[in-house]
């Protein structure tokens, strides 16, 4: 049997378990009695990794996690208190286990020095709690300690695996050997379910056992069998004369009367738990989405072809295409839902990052996460992690002041960083807000001028334009780069990564009160509902959620503002106006009265008017990456293929605003 698929699943589940361990450990307060449920979640994750490692023959992981499991068990039993040292060692064990598993998965040598150092730290803590340090590789299992302290003659365990047990990678013999660590075990095998030799399936488990365990506690037995509790019938009862023990967890129903002697194949399978799921490789879903995208393009091409047919044929074709569009949209939405995941997966590394970095810098920082259940495309979630980590690290290092500085400024010693996500229109918006000292406008401007950055010499720059300099490659206001970060160092990469996702990154800051970074991202990277428009001979696409209004404007409604470009009166105020003809070097054609169309677009707090010649139809478009297929084009979030085969740019509102600042419109008198 090819074990690689099972091994891949084990690695994937183990990494998820480590994430759970990390988050649960960070939720525990040192010096405070740990929440039992949270502690149990950490223990289960470690226990599962240890058990799976033993099953798949990974002794390095199994041996290392044994000490982790033992320390966690002593915490559960109250033999060790959760101080900062213990929590730090357990958090370190998460990193070491993650490294061990990654090395085994990738076929490289693990970091032996890190494993040895962490093992020594764990065993020192175990020795401190027990009065004696366990020798490496021979540490007494926690369950054995239970055996020594158990009262009474022991337990009778009914263990009836489901036929599919072997396919889950579990071995009954290994489980029975683990039970022997609690005390002597007598096993009575029930082979009545064995089929005739000619019908024997060697990959099915046909045996059941009644085990007599002379030692240990019910909780210790449950811990050992927890790995297979969903794949076997398990009943535990004290032997006559044994001391009663209060149940440590949910009661296990005894085997139904009359089932002991029934063939296993005739027993009903255990009920599914809360809906079933299946793991699918991301590449397979990506391929499916690519096909849906091609279907959208083909549909657009057929619709374009229908315009050249006679009326009868065109009507029949349009009816068929309308049905195809409905089916395509349902298919697209269904596939997209498969890829949507809560953004909490992108949040996973943040608590640990703030905890470690703040501790390293001697700062007290509270991290407030909100909107964890906000859903976003899986690719967006995965590629968002690095920008978030970079922004958080900067906020901890340079945003939040040291405690003494905060006291002097009349602030609480504990700083706060809030990361919040929510859906707004067709986008997901993530805000990273700190209550630190804020950006130093004058220092940023002086540095930009010293570096000769374009536009820095202007005297009329607003805050947004000044703060935009921190996203220039290599820009930093800090003479010394710390080990943690440098505000500005790598921020160009952060913005580039966000833009590659079709999003935007803006910053606002108030001296003494803090900074706010706003990331706006599309919910999906592949297909959007778009409004087509024409400027000159070129066709562009605007995402529909960004369109606020379209109106016809006269030349006298447009005003030049000295050094600020052009604005247009709109509703009760003014909006800056962008001429695509100016930005992209096109020839625009207003009507005979000089009137023109203006689309008012919105991105976050910014609104902009875009002058166009003609509004065309609305349709779904497939987003193609310009970076991957051509080169980045400022002011666009990608391109698409139209029904007639032409390529059209998909406009990015925030990018247009930034571009208009770099290329101010020519005054009306000159235009």
From TrEMBL:
Function description: Involved in the transmission of sensory signals from the chemoreceptors to the flagellar motors. CheA is autophosphorylated; it can transfer its phosphate group to either CheB or CheY.
Domain HPt: 1-104
GO cellular component: cytoplasm
Protein name (database record): Chemotaxis protein CheA
Enzyme class of the recorded protein, top EC level: transferase
Biased composition (Low complexity): 240-275
PANTHER family referenced in this protein's UniProt entry, alphabetically: CHEMOTAXIS PROTEIN CHEA, SENSOR HISTIDINE KINASE CHEA
SUPFAM superfamilies in the record: ATPase domain of HSP90 chaperone/DNA topoisomerase II/histidine kinase (SSF55874), CheW-like (SSF50341), Histidine-containing phosphotransfer domain, HPT domain (SSF47226), Homodimeric domain of signal transducing histidine kinase (SSF47384)
Coiled-coil blocks: none
GO molecular function: ATP binding; phosphorelay sensor kinase activity
SMART domains: CheW, H-kinase_dim, HATPase_c, HPT
Keywords: ATP-binding, Chemotaxis, Kinase, Nucleotide-binding, Phosphoprotein, Transferase, Two-component regulatory system
GO BP of this protein: chemotaxis
Catalytic reaction equation(s): ATP + protein L-histidine = ADP + protein N-phospho-L-histidine
EC number: 2.7.13.3
Keyword DNA-binding found: no
Annotated stretches, region: Disordered: 240-279
Location of Phosphohistidine modifications: 47
């Amino acid at each position: 049997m090819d074990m690689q698929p099972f091994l891949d699943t084990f690695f994937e589940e183990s990494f998820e378990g480590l994430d759970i361990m990390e988050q649960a450990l960070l939720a525990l307060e040192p010096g405070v009695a740990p929440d039992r449920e949270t502690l149990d979640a950490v223990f289960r994750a470690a226990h599962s990794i240890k058990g799976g490692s033993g099953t798949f023959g990974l002794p390095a992981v199994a041996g290392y996690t044994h000490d982790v499991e033992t320390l966690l068990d002593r915490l559960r039993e109250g033999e060790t208190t959760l101080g900062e040292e213990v929590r730090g060692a357990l958090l370190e064990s998460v990193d070491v286990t993650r490294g061990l598993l990654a090395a085994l998965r990738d076929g490289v040598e693990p970091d032996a020095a890190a494993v040895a150092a962490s093992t020594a730290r764990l065993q020192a803590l175990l020795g401190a709690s027990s009065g004696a340090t366990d020798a490496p590789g021979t540490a007494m299992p926690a369950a054995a300690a239970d055996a020594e302290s158990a009262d009474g003659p022991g337990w009778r365990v009914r263990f009836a695996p489901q036929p599919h047990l072997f396919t889950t990678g579990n071995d009954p013999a290994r489980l029975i050997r683990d039970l022997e660590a609690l005390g002597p075990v007598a096993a009575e095998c029930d082979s009545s379910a064995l089929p005739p030799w000619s019908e024997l399936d060697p990959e099915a488990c046909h045996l059941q056992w009644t085990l007599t365990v002379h030692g240990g506690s019910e909780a210790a037995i449950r811990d050992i069998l927890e790995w297979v509790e969903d794949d076997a019938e398990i009943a535990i009862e004290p032997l006559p004369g044994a001391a009663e023990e209060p149940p440590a967890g949910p009661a296990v129903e005894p085997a139904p009367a009359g089932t002991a002697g029934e063939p296993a194949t005739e027993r009903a399978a255990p009920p599914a738990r809360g809906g079933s799921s299946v793991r699918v490789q991301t590449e397979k879903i990506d391929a499916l989405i690519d096909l849906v995208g091609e279907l959208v393009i083909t549909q657009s091409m057929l619709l374009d072809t229908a315009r050249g047919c006679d009326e009868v044929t065109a009507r029949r074709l349009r009816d068929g295409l309308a049905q195809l569009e409905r089916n395509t949209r349902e298919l697209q939405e269904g596939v997209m839902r498969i890829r949507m995941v809560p953004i909490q997966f992108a949040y996973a590394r943040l608590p640990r990052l703030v905890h470690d970095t703040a501790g390293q810098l001697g700062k007290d920082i509270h991290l407030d996460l909100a909107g964890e259940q906000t859903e976003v495309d899986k690719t967006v979630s995965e590629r968002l992690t690095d920008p978030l980590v970079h922004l958080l690290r900067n906020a901890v290092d340079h945003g939040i002041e040291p405690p003494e500085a905060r006291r002097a400024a009349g602030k609480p010693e504990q700083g706060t960083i809030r990361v919040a996500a929510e859906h707004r229109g067709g986008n997901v918006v993530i805000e990273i807000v700190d209550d630190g000292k804020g950006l130093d406008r004058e220092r940023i401007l002086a540095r930009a001028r010293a570096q000769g950055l374009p536009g820095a010499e202007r005297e009329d720059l607003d805050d947004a334009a000044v703060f935009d300099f921190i996203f220039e490659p290599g820009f930093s206001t800090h003479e010394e780069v710390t080990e943690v970060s440098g505000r500005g160092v790598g921020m160009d990469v952060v913005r580039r990564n966000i833009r590659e996702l079709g999003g935007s990154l803006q910053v606002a800051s108030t001296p003494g009160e803090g900074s706010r970074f706003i990331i706006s991202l599309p919910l999906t990277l592949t297909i959007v509902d778009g409004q087509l428009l024409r400027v000159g001979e070129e066709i562009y696409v605007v995402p529909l959620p960004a369109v606020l209004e379209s109106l016809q404007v006269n030349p006298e409604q447009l005003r030049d503002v000295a050094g600020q470009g052009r604005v247009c009166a709109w509703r009760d105020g003014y909006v800056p106006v962008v001429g695509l003809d100016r930005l992209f070097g096109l020839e625009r054609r207003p009507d005979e009265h000089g009137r023109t169309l203006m689309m008012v677009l919105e991105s976050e707090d910014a609104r902009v008017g875009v002058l166009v010649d003609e509004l065309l139809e609305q349709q779904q478009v497939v987003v193609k990456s310009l970076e991957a297929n051509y080169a980045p084009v400022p002011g666009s979030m990608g391109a698409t293929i139209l029904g007639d085969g032409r390529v059209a740019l998909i406009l990015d509102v925030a990018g247009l605003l930034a571009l208009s600042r770099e290329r101010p419109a020519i005054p009306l008198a000159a235009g």
